[in-house]
Design goal:
This is Aminoglycoside phosphotransferase domain-containing protein. InterPro entries: Aminoglycoside_PTrfase (IPR002575), Kinase-like_dom_sf (IPR011009). It holds the Pfam family APH. It comes from Streptomyces zagrosensis. 38% of the residues lie in helices and 17% in strands. With 264 residues, it is α+β, with helices and mostly antiparallel strands. The chain folds into two domains: 86 residues, 2-Layer Sandwich (Phosphorylase Kinase, domain 1), CATH 3.30.200.20; 162 residues, Aminoglycoside 3'-phosphotransferase, Chain: A, domain 2 (Alpha-Beta Complex), CATH 3.90.1200. The strands form three sheets. It has a five-stranded antiparallel beta sheet with strand order 1-2-3-5-4. The protein has a three-stranded antiparallel beta sheet with strand order 6-8-9, covered by helices on one side. The longest helix has 21 residues. It is globular.
């Protein structure tokens, strides 16, 4: 979504928080945003995420991210300021120093497990009570199986190497674009597919997941249902974007997981 720098109206909107800016360094992340950048400025620097204030899923996403910011503060960069007008919604975060996680590194994976376990302890705010996780529902058979995915645990649902920042003594989950409430095993289960895609065997991936309390306490039938639904979900997504190799890799990893669990 990011191309040229946004028009002057955006910079005027956030000027009270940034002061004069000296540079705008776009990030590699933020494909679903109109702007994600580190803005060097008088009052900063800040990591700035901006979205057009237009009705639809992308607007809903940034509103969720804004609403959840104070809750996830123990494991995420702090939201320092926010700005909104008829044209833009803008979030200004603290800039954290770190690198993207390496999912082949045992040390980094221990960090991810710690973050997921910490997330599980955070109480969901009242605003999140209507955020039931349902994106896997249409990929379940029978449909009643989707009830196995319900729960009251706050979920990130998009943990991958670029969304884990590993720092010196502290690490963060970033890009809270679509937090939901659901079964506690969902984030660890999504990580199983990520780990298989990164080169781990299914046995290794599930052994890692066992460090996560949500996975350890899960009903095996729920894990089976989620594995099936995840494979169908990725297979459906790749049908519309066959040239995106990363999607193909996720389909392969999900399929390998279902085979490992004796589901295909």
């Amino acid at each position: 979504m990011q191309h040229d720098l946004p028009e002057p109206e955006l910079w005027s909107l956030i000027y009270p928080f940034t002061g004069n800016r000296t540079s705008v360094n776009r990030t590699e992340r933020g494909f679903d945003s109109d702007l994600t950048a580190v803005v060097e400025c008088e009052e900063g620097p800040f990591f700035v995420k901006a979205m057009r204030n237009r009705q639809g899923g992308r607007r809903d996403s940034i509103l969720r991210e804004r609403a959840i910011a104070s809750t996830v503060r123990p494991i995420a960069p702090a939201l320092v300021w926010e700005a909104e007008d008829d044209d833009w919604i803008v979030l200004g975060y603290e800039v954290v120093s770190g690198r993207r996680a390496d999912f082949t590194s045992a040390l980094d994976l221990a960090v991810v497990a710690e973050l997921i376990n910490h997330l599980r302890t955070l109480p969901a705010p009242k605003v999140a009570q209507t955020w039931a996780e349902n994106r896997w529902d249409r990929f379940t058979e029978p449909e009643t199986t989707a009830q196995l995915f319900r729960g009251g645990t706050l979920l990130h649902t998009d943990i991958h190497p670029s969304n884990v920042m590993v720092g010196d003594g502290r690490s963060w989950l970033v890009d809270w674009s679509w937090p939901t409430l659901g079964a506690a095993f969902i984030d660890p289960a999504c990580m199983v597919v990520q780990l298989i895609s990164a080169g781990h065997t299914p046995t290794q991936a599930e052994t890692w997941a066992a460090q996560c309390e949500g996975w350890a306490k899960a009903d095996p039938a729920a894990l089976d249902a989620f594995a099936r639904a995840t494979h169908r979900m990725w297979a459906t997504r790749v049908e519309g974007r066959p040239d995106e190799t990363w999607l193909g890799a996720m389909v392969s990893a999900a399929q390998e997981w279902t085979r490992y669990r004796g589901l295909t």
